[in-house]
Automatic annotation (TrEMBL):
PANTHER family: 2-HYDROXYACID OXIDASE 1 (PTHR10578:SF107), S -2-HYDROXY-ACID OXIDASE-RELATED (PTHR10578). One of its GO terms (molecular function) is oxidoreductase activity. It comes from Caenimonas terrae. Keywords: Flavoprotein, FMN, Oxidoreductase. This is Alpha-hydroxy acid oxidase. The lineage of its organism: Bacteria, Pseudomonadati, Pseudomonadota, Betaproteobacteria, Burkholderiales. Its cofactor is FMN. Residues 1-383 form the FMN hydroxy acid dehydrogenase domain. Belongs to the FMN-dependent alpha-hydroxy acid dehydrogenase family. Its EC number is 1.-.-.-. The keyword Flavoprotein applies.
Length: 386
């Protein structure tokens, strides 16, 4: 079983599960509490069916799109995911390069395991930096300045995480960052000797961009979700306005589920909105992102690009999100599983699969380009009577 034998994102997920200790895989795969939002994000795609247009010339169909006036090879971006190097050495850099070679942006997480500068050096593509707002304001502004100096195109502020979600798989597995070896997870690692030897040889990954920040006060359960007391639950609209005033380039706000919030963000001068519930890792019971999308699209009324993430695993998922009004989608676990399954080759494979599926979907739908994905293509699934 290797990357070459993977034909879908689900295959890459299975390969990652096979390779990784359970505690690491579960940290990537899991969600909060009952994981109902995690499942709903996927289920929402299943409720929408496509009614393809027949007899359209799609011989020259193209996946090309644009965002902020710049071309995109695909209407996608790699979204921020923390702790990637637990899956594969230099995973952040591999994903950044794979994104650049597909002509799409890579978002470095502030809980990333590569530094802002290392990513800027490794990739010639479009780069976004995601930040949680920290209690330590000096540290926060310095981090933002570094992203500015490194030439990052956009700052992504994640707003669905005033406190960490309750991720119970991590509690059961005693998974924590900073990483600790306990009797329980030692057994888990012993079952994955190759992964464990590699990790010991290269050293345990750390949050490169949070180096120097006091992380010591975190309790095990807070660290377990990679989110600690260093993140500021008092962050609000006024402080976001301050970020807007100080960050000179594109500002993207990630973690929106409501039309009223979206409307307010337009007024605040942000440049794009990401409809997201953090992949079901925060508020369990939150509305599926695909279900929240129409309300946000309507509120924004074309004044800003609306992006979506959560549950994107197939080219058809991307098509459905675009048909409901998204400009592009962010990839979370799809590319994370790719890089965790096979490093650079796995990162490329995940994007190759999504590009191939998305192009095929365009052609099968009778759409010559992403702009051809309009609401008339969608039907609700018929539910047979009991
Ligand atoms: C995330 N996500 C995330 N978001 C963010 O803004 N900053 C971060 O550091 C992280 N870290 C992170 C780690 C892991 C392991 C996962 C799975 C997710 C959320 C991410 O950006 C995105 O919103 C979701 O992953 C989208 O859902 P899917 O596509 O994974 O289902």
């Amino acid at each position: 079983f290797s990357v070459a034998a993977c034909y879908s994102i689900d295959d890459l997920r299975r390969l990652a599960r096979h390779r990784l200790p359970r505690s690491i895989f579960d940290f990537y795969d899991g969600g909060a509490e009952d994981e109902s939002t995690l499942q709903e994000n996927r289920a929402a795609f299943g409720r929408h069916r496509l009614a393809p247009r027949a007899l359209v010339d799609v011989a020259a169909a193209s996946t090309a799109a644009s965002l902020f006036g710049q071309p995109l090879g695909l209407p996608m971006a790699v979204g921020p995911t923390g702790a990637l190097a637990f899956g594969w050495r230099d995973a952040d850099l591999h994903l950044a390069r794979a994104a650049a070679s597909h002509g799409i942006p890579f978002t470095l997480s502030s809980s990333g395991t590569a530094s802002i500068e290392a990513v800027a050096k490794a990739s010639s593509g479009r780069l976004w930096f995601q930040a949680y707002v920290l209690r330590n304001r000096d540290f926060f502004w310095k981090m933002i300045e570094r992203a500015d100096h490194a030439g990052f195109e956009a700052l992504v502020i994640t707003v669905d995480l005033p406190v960490g979600g309750k991720r119970e798989r991590d509690f059961h597995n005693q998974f924590s960052v900073p990483f600790r070896i306990t009797r329980r997870n030692a057994l888990d690692f012993a079952r994955h000797p190759r992964w464990t030897l590699d990790l010991l040889r290269r050293g345990i990954p750390v949050f490169e961009n949070l180096r120097g920040l006091e992380l010591a006060a975190l309790s095990a359960t807070e660290i377990a979700s990679s989110v600690g007391r260093s993140y500021d639950p008092a962050f609000d609209w006024d402080r976001l306005a301050e970020v807007r005033a100080r960050w000179p380039r594109k500002l993207i706000v990630k973690g929106i589920s409501r039309g009223d919030d979206a409307r307010r963000l337009v007024g605040l001068g942000c440049d794009a909105i990401v409809v997201s519930n953090h992949g079901g890792r925060q508020l369990d019971g939150a509305v599926a992102t695909l279900d929240a999308l129409p309300e946000v699209v309507q509120a924004v009324a074309g004044r800003l690009p609306v992006l979506l993430d959560g549950g994107i695993r197939r080219g058809t998922d991307v098509a459905k999100a675009l048909a409901l009004g998204a400009t592009a989608v962010l990839l979370g676990r799809a590319t994370l599983f790719g890089v965790a399954a096979g490093g650079a080759a796995g990162a490329m494979k995940a994007l190759d699969i999504l590009r191939d599926e998305f192009l095929r979907t365009l052609q099968l739908c009778g759409a010559a380009s992403p702009q051809g994905l309009t609401a008339d293509l969608l039907r609700h699934r018929f539910t047979p009577k009991e």
